[in-house]
Design brief:
The protein is an alpha/beta fold. The protein has 3 helices and 5 strands. The strands form 2 sheets. The protein has a 3-stranded parallel beta sheet, covered by helices on one side. Helix 1 (13-24) runs parallel beside helix 2. 26% of the residues are buried.
């Protein structure tokens, strides 16, 4: 069964800490769906922690997929140069193709 994690309106270190347990429980063969529909504000530490948690889950054999990626998150990920790490798997809005 897939786990859907709804990311908060403000993606900061504390908010990502709140979803940490869900990502840490991910194991081989499980799929985590990250939904960024609600995100309106992004902070660098939140994006960095989210990236680390995604990498850790994938390292345990879980699959991480995005169901929605807001433009503000795409911008931050690209500014931080971690697009290859937190890959959105084609979920980037078409209007932002120039950022890829």
């Amino acid at each position: 069964m897939d786990d859907v994690i709804m990311l908060p309106v403000e993606l900061d270190r504390n908010a990502v800490g709140d979803i940490r347990g869900s990502l840490e429980r991910a194991h081989h063969g499980s799929t985590i769906l990250l939904d960024g529909t609600l995100i309106r504000r992004v902070h660098t530490p939140g994006v960095q922690l989210l990236c680390a948690l995604v990498l850790a889950a994938e390292g345990r054999g879980a699959s991480v997929t995005w169901t929605a990626v807001p433009p503000v998150l795409v911008t931050y990920v690209n500014l931080l140069g971690i697009g290859d790490v937190i890959h959105f798997h084609g979920r980037i809005p078409h209007s932002l193709d120039h950022f890829e």
